[in-house]
Amino acid sequence: DPQTLVQTYVVTLGDIEEFGKLLKSEALRRGWAEAQDRLVLSDAGHGLPGMWVREFGGVRWIIDYQHTKNRLSECAAVIHPPGAAFSKLFGHWESLLYNGHMDRLLRELVARAEEHAPRPKRPADLEAASPGRILWTHIFYLETYRDHMDYPTYRALGWFIGSGHVEAACKMVGVRMKAANKRWTRQGACAIAAIIVERACSDARWAQRWPAPVLSFQEVQRN
Questions:
Q1: Which one of 52, 68, 174, 202 is separated from 103 by 20 to 30 angstroms, measured CA to CA?
Q2: Helices 65-79 & 131-145, crossing angle to 10 degrees?
Q3: Is there a contact between 32 and 38 (Cβ–Cβ < 8 Å)?
Q4: Res 28: pLDDT
Q5: How confident is the model at residue 31 (pLDDT cuts 50, 70, 90)?
Q6: Which residues pair with 41 in a beta bridge?
Q7: In the prediction, which pLDDT does 83 show?
Q8: Dihedral pair phi/psi, residue 19, rounded to 5°
Q9: pLDDT for 216 beyond 70
Q10: Is the pLDDT of residue 129 over 90?
Q11: What's the chain's average pLDDT?
């Protein structure tokens, strides 16, 4: 299994454009320009596809496996309520995804979706929260990003396919800042979030940021 060597973080309360610039700066700081293999791993929400192109043009992008798996779970839940039939169908679809059988997976999903509604031009044309809309929404997602879901190849190369490290980092910041009775100004929230992630970085940057402590007169005399 792939092993994490160094973890560093960036955080912002700004938009995706600001985040992209921060992330690119951090990547360059970490040796992005000299790296032999350069990969990015994320889901496809919140403007991330455009950010990868804008800031990291030409990079190999992996769609997070867990997010894709969750979409299959929602599809299976449309077909069967929680229970043995749901678990069997979801397990079957997840196995197809994990082992790279995307053509078969999409054929089966499309067949199920057509039982509820013909293929729309866009999922938003269907009634909100309807089974057809849920199924076609996830089918469109898989069709759009299937080239970034070659999980057997990624695993064979020893690459991560899940963004659990990112989810854990978000939780780390959220737990610190969203506890009961917390109130922040925007400036204060930006400052404390930056401190949280700086201290969490495993490259010792927090310790290196500050000068060595100045000894007091009494400490000098004792030494």
A1: 52
A2: 150
A3: yes
A4: 96
A5: very high
A6: 62
A7: 96
A8: -60, -40
A9: no
A10: yes
A11: 92
Let me know how long the chain is.
223
**How does DSSP assign the chain, residue by residue?**
------------SS-HHHHHHHHHHHHHHTTGGG-SS-EEEE-S-TTHHHHHHHHSTT-EEEE-HHHHHHHHHHHHHHHS-TTHHHHHHHHHHHHHHHTT-HHHHHHHHHHHHHTT-PPPSSGGGSPTT-HHHHHHHHHHHHHHHGGG--HHHHHHTT-----HHHHHHHHHHHHHHSSTT----HHHHHHHHHHHHHHH-TTSHHHHHSPPPPPPHHHHHH-
Q: Which residue type is seen at 159?
A: W
Tokens of 85: 């039939």
pTM over 0.85: yes
Inter-CA distances, 93 with 77, 192, 198, Å: 12, 42, 40
In the block, which residue shows the tokens 């032999």? Answer: 36
